[in-house]
Design brief:
The chain is 64% helix and 5% strand. With 435 residues, it is mainly α. The chain has 2 domains: 2-319, no CATH class; 333-432, no CATH class. A 4-stranded mixed β-sheet has the order 1-2-4-3. Strand 3 and strand 4 form a beta hairpin. The longest helix is centred in the first third of the chain and has 27 residues, at 67-93. The radius of gyration is 23 Å and the shape is globular. The mean pLDDT is 90.
Length: 435
């Protein structure tokens, strides 16, 4: 029977290879800057917990900074998710065919819900599923370790850490050794990271960028919170919520189903603060497990209903342009050709250009490096403080492409201290004025 799992995993890779891959610029720029001695949080505005860029740094150092390497790393994570979804569902239902069904649902849905990319929302799925697997097998310390890794990948995983802890409480109905083992597993990696932040002096930077600034300032910036769903987006989500609700009605009162339903709803909250389908990769994983578990009690009629809605959802992704067979995004031929025309091996700042141009041109930005998001710049006083640090070692060039948002204090400083050097396509290259 295991040959069926192998076939599903092969099919998953086949679908991913056909679809367009999104090579997010940050997946190259963050590891590249770390390799050049830049510290996350203090030298680089970084708003997540730190494991993913360091993991990518190790991968790129071994295999090279290539898009094929990024794809391979991404697809390995996805295949691990396939395997874990099978194992979890098989363990919960005691039915091997339901494990295959859950994996099949994931294979069919995951690539088309903007899943052919590496982003934090995909990266933390694997350790959460791993933690869940060890949890249901009563390996509480390892479950705690895995969920701690998930938290150190993306901080939203804290909700699953709390949910899993609650499940241990409910299953034991008292605080016993299992709770302590889980807690030690969670706190061990987190404690090491906190100790590192204190020793390096980065604790305040970490707290500001990952918690304080987002909660206090960013929500006030226009465009930071964006729940503007199209009718097609709403339809695609409804295609999964309807079978979820139908199944929930049928299996009310069953503890495992209730736990899966809560996990599914919590994973749906990950789309905050801006809706995109790639933010819902955890939702897709738990939806696959939940749906197969429902079949155990509802029967084949539910499979028929589910199949129809899954097909509608995937078709909607193509009609909405979110799934396509075009080439790799952010790694087009035009992007690589433009990189050759820009200053090479220079100290410069890209304003309104994707950050992987630093890697492509082997150039470095001033410290701190701030990516092109308005809510970063609009923290009160941040532009002035940044320019104070830039002025110590100002960049030789500013490579400026006009965009929808341009930080006023920074652009005024550029115009006062730089002269227009040349024009490359629609990009102005400014050079530092001679003293």
């Amino acid at each position: 029977m295991k040959i069926y799992l192998g076939f599903l995993m092969f099919l998953h890779i086949f679908i991913l290879r056909l679809l367009s891959f999104t090579a997010w610029p940050e997946m190259f720029s963050f590891p590249y800057l770390i390799s050049q001695g830049y510290s996350l949080y203090k030298d680089v505005v970084y708003v997540y917990t730190p494991i993913l860029p360091y993991l990518l740094l190790g991968v790129f150092r071994i295999f090279g900074y290539k898009i094929l390497v990024l794809k391979a790393f991404t697809w390995i994570l996805i295949l691990l998710n396939d395997f874990l979804i099978y194992k979890i569902t098989h363990r919960l239902t005691k039915k091997e065919y339901l494990g295959f069904l859950a994996t099949g649902i994931y294979v069919f849905l995951q690539p088309f819900w903007e899943g052919n990319m590496l982003w934090f929302d995909l990266a933390y799925v694997t350790p959460v599923l791993l933690s869940f697997y060890f949890l249901i097998n009563r390996k509480y310390f390892i479950a705690g370790l895995a969920i701690s890794i998930a938290f150190l990948t993306k901080q939203i995983a804290v909700v699953f850490a709390a949910l899993f802890l609650m499940q241990i409480f409910l299953s034991r109905k008292r605080v016993d050794e299992s709770v302590y083992r889980y807690a030690v597993g969670v706190l061990f990696p987190v404690g090491i990271f906190a100790f590192y932040l204190i020793l390096s002096g980065d604790l305040e930077w970490f707290f500001n960028w990952t918690f304080y600034y987002p909660m206090k300032y960013w929500s006030l910036f226009p465009g930071y919170i964006d729940f503007n769903l199209s009718k097609l987006d709403f339809f695609e989500i409804l295609c999964l919520l309807l079978p979820f609700l139908a199944g929930l009605y049928k299996i009310r009162g069953k503890p495992v189903a209730g736990f899966l339903a809560v996990a599914l709803l919590m994973s749906f909250l990950a789309f905050y603060p801006r809706f995109s389908f790639f933010h819902l990769q955890m939702f897709v994983a738990f939806f696959a497990i939940y749906s197969a578990y429902i079949v155990k009690y509802v029967g084949r009629r539910y499979v028929f209903l589910l199949s129809i809605f899954l097909i509608f959802s995937v078709v909607g992704q193509f009609r909405g342009g979110k799934a396509s067979f075009r080439g790799d995004r952010f790694w087009e031929k035009e992007t690589l050709l433009l990189a050759e025309k820009l200053p090479q091996k220079s100290h410069l700042y890209y304003l309104n250009l994707p950050s992987h141009y630093y890697f492509l041109t082997k150039s470095l930005p001033p410290k701190p490096w701030v990516d092109n998001f308005g809510w970063y710049w609009e923290v009160p006083g941040f532009q002035q403080k940044t320019l104070e640090r830039w002025s110590v070692n100002p960049p030789k060039y500013i490579v400026w492409q006009k965009g929808a948002y341009e930080p006023k204090v920074v652009t005024s400083w550029i115009k006062a201290n730089y002269n227009v050097n040349k024009l490359v396509e629609n990009i102005i290259i400014w050079q530092k004025k001679e003293n």
